[in-house]
Specification:
Blueprint: H1 2-20, H2 26-52, H3 56-85, H4 95-115, H5 121-150, H6 155-179, H7 187-212, H8 224-239, H9 261-276, H10 283-333, H11 343-352, E1 359-367, H12 369-376, H13 378-394, E2 401-406, E3 409-415, H14 420-434, E4 438-440, E5 443-446, E6 448-455, H15 463-479, E7 487-490
Antiparallel strand pairs: 1-3, 1-6, 2-3, 4-5, 5-7
Helix pairs in contact: 1-2, 1-8, 2-3, 2-8, 3-4, 4-6, 5-6, 5-7, 5-9, 5-10, 6-7, 7-8, 12-13
Length: 491
């Protein structure tokens, strides 16, 4: 807030002083060039401070902007040497003008680095050309063309004089493009940079108009446009937040996406107004406006191409998300080791079984599994569990659901069985098969299994009752059998 008030005070004070002092006086000249050099150096110092508190692209961007401001201060110092110390008019053009114009590439490069884009670069370039062409049309139609034709300067002086407003057109176009692509924390900075470019344009357009008619004197109130531009640039650097990871992400504001077309609309309205008033568009303006319209068409084609690519990428991302969703669903309802259903899926399937069909559950507990882990390690134990899961799937029906409930405990859900005898017959076959040897990691391992059978009865309100019944049956079987230890043989 304080910096803004100080900057506003400097701008207002400069303009007021130049209005009060006699035009073209040495006092007005000395005051103007002094404030201009000071404001450019303040902008350079502020940009340098922003470079120090930033990293990466932002640091280089602010550093280049600072160098651009220093270049402008150098150019103004050359003018000051002529008009103040020699108390005469500065030759035009002179070496100081190159310092002025060096600010333009520095400012453009700095803005692109600080607020630049990484995606859709072609569309951004076309936006910039549309804006620059539209602003050039407006500037040429109402200021530059009549000034250029009426001026009495040399060709070199005219070219240099026109270079100032044309360079500001470029600055304003770049700032306008980058405004809607700046990250949320940098939008105030982008808006201030745009305002600075427009203020510099006011100063340069006024300078071009007065200079073409040989009526410009250093210390003219139009100089305040330059002071305002540098003050706004200093405020932009002062308000710029330090770069953080992720700040390079581009986030466009939807309403600002139409900003590149505002200068175009103004250019078209200006052309209509000129034609309606009986004026003819010059060949240059006609070609310029036609080129801008072709650029708009090219921009729309590029946007269509980008949208098509975006739609294709979106479909790919959606497919990947669905695949990932299926994977997560599978992980949520399946045992990661054996690939069998887990307890959650087992319970869900049991609860979903029809009430009018016979539902049986086999509860399996491996006998002698722990010694396999103790003798050969957990890798062997895991391999054994995987082989047991494969065996259970191979010896059950297609409609049966095989699940690993945890540890060395398994279960088989059998919907639609003919009766207990069918379930007990499967339990007997599985028991006999599990007593046969397994080849595990170069070893032959023999284990056993205790299998209990539970049948859904009338009045069962939950799956827990069915599981508990099968579990009790399994423990009854286990209690009638002597403990078995695995027989381990080398293959």
């Amino acid at each position: 807030m304080r910096a803004g008030l100080l900057g506003a005070g400097l701008v207002v004070g400069h303009f007021t002083a130049l209005r009060v002092l006699p035009p073209g006086s040495q006092a007005a000249t000395n005051l103007s060039v002094g404030v201009l050099i000071l404001s450019a150096l303040i902008a350079a110092a502020s940009a340098g401070a922003a470079a120090r508190r930033n990293t990466g692209r932002a640091r280089y961007g602010w550093a280049v902007l600072a160098l651009g401001m220093v270049g402008w201060a150098f150019g103004e110092s050359v003018w000051a040497f002529y008009v103040t110390f020699r108390e005469g008019h500065a030759p035009f053009p002179n070496v100081g003008d190159f310092g002025f114009l060096l600010m333009v590439p520095g400012a453009v490069a700095g803005m692109v680095a600080v607020l630049g884009v990484r995606r859709g670069l072609l569309r951004v370039m076309l936006d910039g050309l549309v804006i620059a062409g539209s602003l050039l049309f407006l500037s040429w139609a109402f200021i530059l063309e009549p000034v250029y034709q009426a001026g009495n300067l040399t060709a070199g002086a005219k070219a240099m004089s026109l270079a100032y407003p044309l360079s500001d057109v470029l600055l304003a176009a770049v700032a306008l493009i980058l405004l809607h692509r700046a990250a949320p924390g940098h939008r105030a900075t982008a808006a201030l940079i745009l305002a600075a470019a427009l203020a510099l344009s006011v100063g340069d357009l006024g300078f071009a108009y007065l200079n073409q008619h040989s009526t410009y004197t250093c210390g003219d109130p139009i100089d305040t446009g330059w002071v305002a531009g540098f003050v706004l640039m200093a405020l932009a650097a002062h308000r710029a937040p330090a770069a953080r990871p992720g700040d390079d992400a581009e986030q466009s504001v939807p309403i600002l996406l139409w900003l590149p077309y505002l200068p175009l609309a103004l250019a078209v309205l200006a052309a209509v107004d000129l034609l309606a008033s009986g004026d003819r568009l010059s060949a240059f303006l006609s070609v310029l406006l036609g080129t801008v319209l072709l650029l708009v068409l090219a921009r729309q084609l590029v946007a269509l191409r980008d949208n098509t690519a975006l739609s294709r990428d979106l479909h790919r991302v959606v497919a990947e998300l669905r695949e990932r969703e299926n994977e997560l669903h599978h992980l949520a309802y399946h045992d990661p080791l054996t690939g069998l259903a887990n307890r959650a899926l087992f319970v869900s399937a049991a609860e979903a079984a029809r009430d009018d069909e016979t539902l049986a559950v086999l509860y399996l507990d491996l006998d002698g599994f722990k010694p396999v882990n103790d003798v050969h390690g957990h890798a062997a134990g895991d391999a054994l569990l995987i082989e047991v899961g494969r065996l259970l799937r191979a010896h059950t029906r297609a409609d049966d659901l095989v699940a690993r409930l945890g540890g060395d405990e398994f279960a088989v859900l059998m919907p639609g069985v003919s009766g207990r005898s069918e379930a007990e017959d499967l339990a007997r076959r599985l028991t006999e098969r599990l007593t046969q040897p397994f080849g595990i990691l170069g070893h032959t391992v023999r284990i056993g299994a205790s299998v209990g059978v539970g049948l859904r009865e009338e009045g069962d309100l939950s799956v827990d009752a069915l599981l508990r019944r099968a579990d009790e049956s399994m423990y009854a079987v286990k209690s009638t059998r002597p403990g078995r230890r695995p027989v381990v043989e080398r293959v």
